[in-house]
Design brief:
The protein contains 12 helices and no strands. The chain is mostly helical and about 230 residues long.
Amino acid sequence: MCSDTSTLLSLFRLAWISDSALPTGAFSFSLGLEGAVESGLVSDLSSLEEYTIGALYGAAECDGVAMLEAYRAIADGDHTRVKDADAHLLSFKAGEEAREMTLRMGRRLIELIHSICPTPLTEEFYGEVVEGTTAGCYPTAQALAGYALGIGERALYAAHLYGVANTILSAALRLMRLSHYDTQAIIYRLSPLCERLYDLYGSRTMEEMTSFIPTLELAASLHERGIGRLFMN
């Protein structure tokens, strides 16, 4: 499908695919925030905002690059490259919970899009995910969904980053003493970062992906061994 984010239809669908109510299971995860709060790495609004910024940079230079690579491969009709991007991304997920998150959410989004607006590629990809021959990471599923819905790559990139921030800040409401106004103010302050991250990482290739956010990796590893849990990750 041709992408065009200038139409009301594509904007409506962008809002839909960015909605936290989309049944992908994102509410079950905190992107390591629970471990960060428990260990004291995040203890107030300032450290929460810094943690969210770190997560956005991590997503931009890893998952975001893989998503754009998959999206461009779909546009070029190169299905092999889509699957290569998916496999390459999974190899970057060192933690058990990080792998579980991207695979669980990816499969649910692929199932949703395949059932609502199937294309030959979503049918092929969904079949391989069910068979277990393709992993089906969440950013790859976002690329498939975005292209099928006519959402341009820049808008889809923004939706991906918004999802990362929203996942962390929604979890923060259940883990910390703060208000919805506090989390919405953080979202607002970080919104200009989206453009900057696209300019920095939007032209990177799969071979240029990086993933080094020590604070988040430490928080996730602590959470995997934690006793009290509200979230999977």
